[in-house]
UniProtKB/TrEMBL annotation:
<dbReference type="Pfam" id="PF17765">
    <property type="entry name" value="MLTR_LBD"/>
</dbReference>
<protein>
    <recommendedName>
        <fullName>HTH cro/C1-type domain-containing protein</fullName>
    </recommendedName>
</protein>
<dbReference type="InterPro" id="IPR001387">
    <property type="entry name" value="Cro/C1-type_HTH"/>
</dbReference>
<dbReference type="GO" id="GO:0003677">
    <property type="term" value="F:DNA binding"/>
</dbReference>
<dbReference type="InterPro" id="IPR010982">
    <property type="entry name" value="Lambda_DNA-bd_dom_sf"/>
</dbReference>
<dbReference type="InterPro" id="IPR041413">
    <property type="entry name" value="MLTR_LBD"/>
</dbReference>
<dbReference type="Pfam" id="PF13560">
    <property type="entry name" value="HTH_31"/>
</dbReference>
<feature type="domain" description="HTH cro/C1-type">
    <location>
        <begin position="15"/>
        <end position="69"/>
    </location>
</feature>
Length: 267
């Protein structure tokens, strides 16, 4: 008998879709997960009901997001294995404390916390450098930081290297959508692609920084500020909410930016 989700998708169909998304054959997955190809085939066609242990093992080798592992367990008739707490819940107090320490400790440079769909969750005061001139409709919650960055009413007019920065963000978002198979991210990618931004200059970079990574060059008042960015994730999440969190931190890429941000914080 075929095992189905509440939405009518069988567990075997979900498993097959994720296997194909990862570009794996049944033989590839069966070898990695230590299960016979015949049994895997029976699971995908609904002829065999997998145990929750097998589903979790297959999901691990397919590197499925925790939320999708829960979906597959539900499709198989089992309870979810991973909780989904609100960030404000007592259980996530250590997470909040760690994030707060990162954000506060990064001042006077901008740092922000985003969820799996790039919605702004928290930020330090220095982030107002990027939001102070944005139109109100982009600052209505939930605030999507990628939309805020590339929209003509947001940061885009002040990004000196907009074509380069835009291409970087779009590539990163597309990779994230492909990895998570998340339709929300695919839709966001299509939306952002429609914003103006110009073509990337294919001429080799003339400065040392741009030959190493893509900087954010941002115009503030009459000064051009230059940043490099990093992304911090929780290394061992077992909660769906925590697994989707990321801290985006911006570091000054030159002494002039360092001085400008410290002077701004002091004033």
């Amino acid at each position: 008998m075929t095992i189905s989700t509440r939405h009518g998708r069988p567990v075997g169909e979900l498993l097959r879709d994720w296997r194909q998304t990862r570009g794996m054959s049944q033989l590839d997955l069966s070898i990695e997960a230590g299960v016979s190809t015949r049994h895997l085939s029976f699971v995908e066609t609904g002829r065999s009901r997998p145990s929750p242990e097998l589903l979790l093992r297959l999901a691990e080798h397919l590197e499925m997001p925790l939320a999708e592992r829960n979906t597959m367990l539900l499709a198989g008739g089992y309870a979810p294995a991973y909780p989904r707490h609100e960030l404000s819940d007592p259980e996530l107090a250590p997470v909040r404390a760690a994030v707060r320490q990162i954000l506060d400790g990064h001042s006077p440079y901008p740092a922000l916390l985003v969820d799996q769909h790039w919605h702004l969750v928290d930020a330090n005061p220095a982030v107002d450098l990027f939001t102070m001139d944005a139109q109100p409709h982009l600052l209505t919650r939930p605030i999507n930081v990628l939309r805020l960055s590339l929209h003509p009413d947001g940061l885009a007019p002040r990004i000196v290297n907009l074509p380069e920065w835009r291409a970087h963000l779009l590539k990163r978002l597309h990779q994230q959508a492909a990895t998570t198979n998340d339709p929300v991210l695919y839709d966001l990618h299509e939306e952002l692609r429609g914003y103006p931004g110009g073509d990337v200059d294919t001429t080799p970079a003339s400065d040392a920084l741009s030959r190493v990574l893509v900087p954010l060059r941002y115009r503030h008042c009459d000064q051009e500020l230059s940043f490099v960015s990093t992304t911090t994730l929780f290394g061992t999440p077992r909660d769906v909410t925590v697994a989707g969190l990321a801290v985006e931190a911006f570091f000054p890429a030159d002494s002039a930016t360092t001085q400008a941000l410290r002077a701004r914080a002091a004033s």
